[in-house]
Amino acid sequence: MVKSYVDRKEFKFLENRKKFLLFALCVIALGVIFNLFRGVKLDIKFTGGAMLKYSYALDKSVSASDVSASDYMKLDKAQVAAAVKEVTGKDSTISIAQSATSEGGVKNTVTVSMSGKKTIAEDAGEQVAQKLTEQYPKVNFSLLESNSVDATTGGEFFGKCLVAVILAAIFMIIYVALRFKKIGGMSAGVTAIIAIVHDCLIVYFTFVILGFSIDDNFIAVLLTIIGYSINSTIIIYDRIRENRSIMGDKATYAELANRSLNETLGRTINTNITLLAAVLTIVIVAYIYDIRSIITFAVPMMAGVIAGAYSSMFISNSLWVTWREYRDKKLALNKVASFSKGRK
């Protein structure tokens, strides 16, 4: 329905390219301001530290139907953090979550994250479990995971992730430059990467604004959005290449890009609405069950999808048209200068 409606319209996108670019710059500037004032939180995978994960349930001697006993299942994050500090001597971040089990029940977990250059003792996890049992005598705590990450290892991991993103960008420039030679391959490749940088910044600022820690979910979202965004951009560039053959050399770059955008607009809108609906469903379910690991992936993913649609439609094409117009103008001026010099 959306596609049939937009196919009957002819929008003058390129007439407002300066506004589109200005809006993108304003959003990035807003993100920079948030980054300066709020700062960025790095996960222990990057900074080094330790993570302890426990499951907890009422003791078998306690009746599940006992209303007063159910209050024991409501853990206080401050009390848990105090117990952890008493055992390890470190400040910690506490995350409490529930998840559904295969048997149809509910599994309660509490995750303790401690950042720092020094790792914790091997038996610290069990000691913390004993301390928590003392605070909540009618609740059993079981250690599920105990991970320690050295700060050097975390830095190396973060560096490798950045290298992967950079290499992906370089190969994309080469691919686009080779595939779209007829419309100025290098200009198409570079402008596509600029659009991707915009998308990555939006994802990063989403993590900063919402207070999410930069972790492996951040890298996963970046790589997903890079692939998604470049695919949308390539589809539009492919239509520009086809329309160059149809419209001929007399058509201006703005006319060429505008028609191509209009012809792919229905497909772009339908694809993005479908994807956003799917991701939004995941976000709602994750919030209901308080699955933080899914939330910190799906919410930035939604922001990245919106940014990717915007950049592939308005940023990459606007920059490509500006680049080609500037290049042709410069070549024309050089010819005039050479002609004038020859006559002298």
Written description of the protein model:
There is one protein chain. Helices cover about 70% and strands about 10% of the residues. The protein has helices at about 1-5, 15-40, 45, 65-70, 75-90, 125-135, 150-180, 185-210, 215-245, 255-290, 290-344; strands at about 50-60, 95-100, 105-115, 140-150. A four-stranded antiparallel beta sheet has the order 2-3-1-4. A hairpin with a 5-residue loop joins strand 2 and strand 3. Helix 2 (about 15-40) runs parallel beside helix 8 and helix 9 crosses helix 11. The mean pLDDT is about 80.
Q: Could you spell the SSE succession in H and E letters?
A: HHHEHHEEHEHHHHH
Specify the helix fraction band.
55-70%
**Sheet with the most strands: spatial strand order:** 2-3-1-4
Number of separate helices? 11
Query: What class, by secondary structure content?
Result: alpha+beta
Q: What are the segments in which pLDDT stays under 50 over at least 5 consecutive residues?
A: none
